Amino acid sequence: MAGNKRICEFYELKEFHKFVDEICAKSRLRESKKYIQHGTTSLYEHSISVAYYSLQLALKLKLPVNHRALIQGALLHDYFLYDWHVDDPSRPLHGFYHPKLALQNAQTEFELSEVEKNIILRHMFPLTPVPPVYLESILVCLVDKFCSINEIIRRNRKTNI
Questions:
Q1: Which residues, 6 or more positions from 68, have their beta carbon under 8 angstroms from its beta carbon?
Q2: What SUPFAM superfamilies has UniProt attached to this entry (predicted)?
Q3: Which residues partner with 36 through β-bridges?
Q4: Paired strand residues for 38
Q5: pLDDT at 158 over 70
Q6: What value does the CA radius of gyration of the chain take, rounded to a whole number of Å?
Q7: How far is CA 92 from the centre of its chain?
Q8: Which candidate, 121, 92, 86, places its Cα nearest to that of 104?
Q9: Cis peptide before 126 (omega within 30 of 0)
Q10: Looking at the domain 2-159, which fold is it?
Q11: The dihedral of CA 127, 92, 37, 85: what is its sign?
Q12: Phi (first) and psi of residue 42, to 5 degrees
């Protein structure tokens, strides 16, 4: 039984990486490697982590979600492609502003489902007041917070803050 579980996990991890590569080939997602998200974690690494852990949580809990929509929405949830640490008057408060920009950027390169749009637009709840409505978008919203906190704590450990 444990062997079958490992085979399934390996298959899903392989499929995850294959789908990430497909999305990277069709988009500017790899550009996000040059932007820091939290601590020393790049925006790209953050997006991959959110997608990976969202999928793992869905599989662990056996949740009835669309895996491809979950992964794609998670990969694109922060698809804003700028350094948010640099003040820019054309961009108001980043936390409130970036979900809409991420959605606009994603829509220029992908035909998104309503689930994927909701993941991107609502992942900052409760900072942004409208909550996510799909199970996939709720998962990404929660996992995004977990990954962000982990990235900040990890940075603080490295710098002894």
A1: 19
A2: HD-domain/PDEase-like
A3: 42
A4: 41
A5: no
A6: 16
A7: 21
A8: 121
A9: yes
A10: Hypothetical protein af1432 (1.10.3210)
A11: negative
A12: -75, 160
